[in-house]
Amino acid sequence: MKRRLPPLNALRAFEAAARLGRMTAAAEELSVTPGAISRQVGQLEEVLGVPLFEGTKNKPQLTAAGASLLPALTSALNQMEAAVREVSGEKARTLDVSCFSTFTVKWLIPRLYDFHARHPDIDVRLSATDQVAHPDTDHYDLVITVDGRGVSKSAMVLPLFVERLGPVMTPALAAAAKVREPGDLAGQPLLHTRTRPDAWKTWCESRSCALPLHGGPQFEHYYFTLEAAVAGLGIAIAPWHLVMDDIRAGRLVAPLGFEESAYQYVARRRGDANARLDAFCDWLEQRARETPVP
């Protein structure tokens, strides 16, 4: 019996655009132009005879037909990808791990040599992102992300460590500003991160202090903010696990210490049996336990 399906490229384009919420994000994932995604989606709508998106190009919304089609397409493409990986042997060789970009650079990569030394036969492919990902829908074996405090360990969730926030600066800036208590930060250049706009407010509330938090340079990612702090451009509010190596090396100091926030880092894994993923999760838990408390 001949299959009666729309073009596969059109189905892939719609699934990526619907799942990611933006044509540009789908274009990046599929390595094509946004115009190509738009044309493929339009072709699929013509074949089906129903609109799949509505609203503006900047903020497209799924129609009822699009919302109905998306889950089945995502599930089917996930099954196809898993079957291809199984046949090609890629699943046995490579682990796909996703985590926030700054965490990747400042915590995971500096420690990954230890895993490779212990398991030279396991390749780890890192994907850095600043969007929330999930193993079941985003094709990853493991996703390291942030969740609220109190998440319990389960077969598919590994709590790693509680987030601790504190102001960090160069030793020269700390000496010049004579930072010994929270009030000494008043009038100093405070650095901000677009993806974490409430970090200073959260820390001030934990220390019961009031600071003028408006103004000051703002950076796109935590990594840029931390590099600016290392360069002496100001004082950053940062999680301990992202700056502990810089503090140990003397590039930064934290004269006011660190306070626990309402968040914790967790790793979410695929639910299927995988000895290589088990080995990576065991290693990750061990390294998290060995992370010193400030």
Key features?
alpha/beta; Arc Repressor Mutant, subunit A; D-Maltodextrin-Binding Protein, domain 2; 3 domains; 10 strands; 21% strand
Helix/strand layout:
Blueprint: H1 8-20, H2 23-30, H3 34-48, E1 53-55, E2 60-62, H4 64-88, H5 90-93, E3 94-100, H6 101-118, E4 123-129, H7 135-138, E5 142-148, E6 157-168, H8 171-177, E7 190-193, H9 199-206, E8 218-219, H10 222-230, E9 235-239, H11 240-248, E10 259-269, H12 275-290
Parallel strand pairs: 3-4, 3-5, 7-8, 7-9
Antiparallel strand pairs: 1-2, 5-10, 6-9, 6-10
Description:
This protein has 294 residues and is an alpha/beta fold. The protein has three domains: 81 residues, Orthogonal Bundle (Arc Repressor Mutant, subunit A), CATH 1.10.10.10; 100 residues, D-Maltodextrin-Binding Protein, domain 2; 98 residues, D-Maltodextrin-Binding Protein, domain 2 (3-Layer(aba) Sandwich). The protein is 46% helix and 21% strand. It is built from twelve helices and ten strands. Strand 7, helix 9 and strand 8 form a beta-alpha-beta unit. The radius of gyration is 23 Å and the shape is globular. 27% of the residues are buried. The mean pLDDT is 86.
